[in-house]
Amino acid sequence: MEWIYHCPHCRGMLNPDETVILIALREGHQLLVGLHPEPGNYHMHLPPGAVMDQGSRWSFHCPLCRTALTSDLNPDLCGLDLTSGGSRHRIFFSRLAGEEATFTLSAEGLLTNYGTHRDTYVEELVQRMYT
Fold first, then answer.
1. Which residue of 28, 37, 92, 103 shows the fewest CB atoms closer than 10 Å?
2. b/e per residue, 96-127, with b = 16+ CB within 10 A?
3. What are the two backbone dihedrals, phi and then psi, of residue 11, each rounded to the nearest 5 degrees?
4. What pLDDT is attached to residue 131?
């Protein structure tokens, strides 16, 4: 399956190859990170020697327009636009290092969730999206 990611702000493509490229910022640290494009796959590429401590909160930004990707739905989630199989989705992922929580929202409003920590957000997301 092919997943194509775009910045929701500038519409720039974020995965020109097999990796979704983002800027991660935290307390003066700036990293260029690569995320696996498959929703629910939490494999991440970091620069040599870089560490994202478990539970640390990172701010993810588009590498093209540098706009923060933090979601209005929850301040601990980031959002990207995703096209897969000809369908458009909004995908949300946790910005806490080590937290496995990912959500896709289809144009029809169908929510799919992934990860061992998804229950932290599901009820709030559903409530905020449909009220």
1. 28
2. bbebebbbbbeeeeebebbbeebebbeeebee
3. 70, 10
4. 63
